[in-house]
Write a structure and sequence with these properties.
Elements: E1 2-8, H1 12-17, E2 23-24, H2 26-39, H3 45-62, E3 67-73, H4 79-96, E4 104-109, H5 118-122, E5 127-132, H6 141-153, H7 155-169, H8 171-180, H9 185-204, H10 208-224, H11 228-256, H12 263-295, H13 305-324, H14 337-364, H15 368-372
Helix pairs in contact: 2-3, 7-9, 8-9, 11-12, 12-13, 13-14
Length: 377
């Protein structure tokens, strides 16, 4: 049995005529086509219904098997819901024309959008052919519109195509504006080329997922009120100050020695000037992390080792760098061999004693996170 199936994805037939769908049978489909043409003569689904009737009549003359025609509709606004509704109506049609023969379908549509439902139809009945009906004056216009609509609706395709196109279209107005401020056009072209290059690398390396993940993480940190966001900002500021202080001390040391300073002396000057500030940054960030772990019931005593470890390392580096720097330079605290030995001993004992102390406390006063065996986030 051949079933001529007229597809109306957005339910123009039901909405404009008030008819119940599906519509089965030649006469019923013809009445529905007349009703839709009366309600809206410009609707392309009118052509679909009359085309279905014509195909039905031709097949009835040329074929020896039984032929039936039916019109099925979806819903307006959602392709997913429309496809599901058409699937349900096809099931109704197949049940109403129950026959001992196998059913094959000839699908009649008015454009590419309606043809998106073909997999739904094919899952229920084999398709022998598809006939697209469009007005001659508008041939391929709807397909072009639908394709452009699908491209613009896809976020990935939209970003890949429209962003470079938009940057290219901005070249002329940017150059025009730059000429008003006596900025060479080559500079503008270079900046736009750099933007396109960065965008191409960004897309090519797939960095959008990493950026989205970082943005989500930063947003969650802000919304959950985590202390670390404050301490990390303060630590970053301390690192900047430490870098400046290290460079200033390096300049002082370079000016106090004859010739170019040795690489070891340069390293000692940078470390000696920056280590105090770097240690303060490390202690600040670790205290913020410990506070957040405590507030989220993930605190363990061993986490308190971090500030002591940072302090111990800072003491060792400060004394070691001061041992190699010459005396009499502003900002330099020199250390003799005895002072260096004391500093190394103090740093080592600070790290060891903090580890032993918190291990003992953890054994006698375990926290809830230690009892549950959780790990820090």
């Amino acid at each position: 049995m051949l079933l001529v199936l007229c597809v109306d994805l957005d339910d123009d037939l039901g909405r404009k005529t008030g008819l119940d769908t599906p519509v089965v049978g030649r006469q019923n489909v013809e009445d529905a086509a007349v009703a839709l043409a009366t309600a809206d003569p410009e609707d392309s689904d009118v052509n679909v219904l009359f085309q279905g009737i014509q195909v039905h009549d031709q097949l009835l003359e040329d074929e020896d098997e039984e032929v039936e025609v039916a019109a099925v509709t979806g819903v307006e606004g959602s392709d997913v819901k429309a496809n599901r509704e058409i699937g349900a109506e096809i099931d109704t049609v197949l049940a109403s024309i129950s026959t001992g023969e196998s059913v094959h379908a000839i699908v009649i549509t008015d454009g590419a959008q309606d043809e998106s439902v073909l997999p739904v139809i094919r899952s229920r009945v084999p398709i022998d052919g598809v006939r697209r009906v469009v007005v001659r004056q508008a041939q391929n216009l709807e397909s072009m519109y639908y394709t452009m609509k699908q491209v613009l609706a896809d976020p990935e395709t939209r970003g890949t195509i429209l962003v470079p196109l938009g940057i290219l279209l901005l070249i002329y107005p940017f150059v025009t504006i730059a000429s008003l401020f006596d900025v060479p056009g080559a500079v503008v072209l270079g900046l736009i080329s750099a933007l396109l290059g960065l965008y191409t690398l960004f897309r090519g390396l797939g960095l959008e997922s990493a950026v989205d993940e970082a943005a989500n993480r930063a947003r969650n940190v802000l919304y959950t009120g985590r202390v670390t966001i404050i301490t990390y900002v303060a630590a970053a500021a301390l690192l900047v100050v430490g870098g400046v202080r290290g460079y200033d001390l390096f300049q002082n040391v370079s000016g106090s020695v004859n010739g170019d300073p040795a690489p070891g002396l340069i390293l000692a000057a940078l470390v000696h000037g920056a280590v105090e500030w770097f240690a303060a940054a490390g202690i600040t960030s670790s205290l913020g992390q410990v506070t957040d772990e405590y507030l989220h019931d993930r605190f363990k005593w061993r986490y308190l080792n971090a500030p002591f470890y940072v302090s111990a390392i800072a003491i060792v580096l400060y004394a070691l760098s001061g041992f190699f720097l010459p005396a009499g330079i502003d900002g330099v605290q020199t250390f003799e061999l005895t002072g260096l030995a004391v500093a190394l001993t103090v740093g080592t004992l600070l790290g060891v004693l903090s580890t032993l102390t918190f291990a003992v406390v953890e054994a006698h006063f375990p926290t809830s996170a230690e009892n549950d065996g959780e790990q820090p986030a």
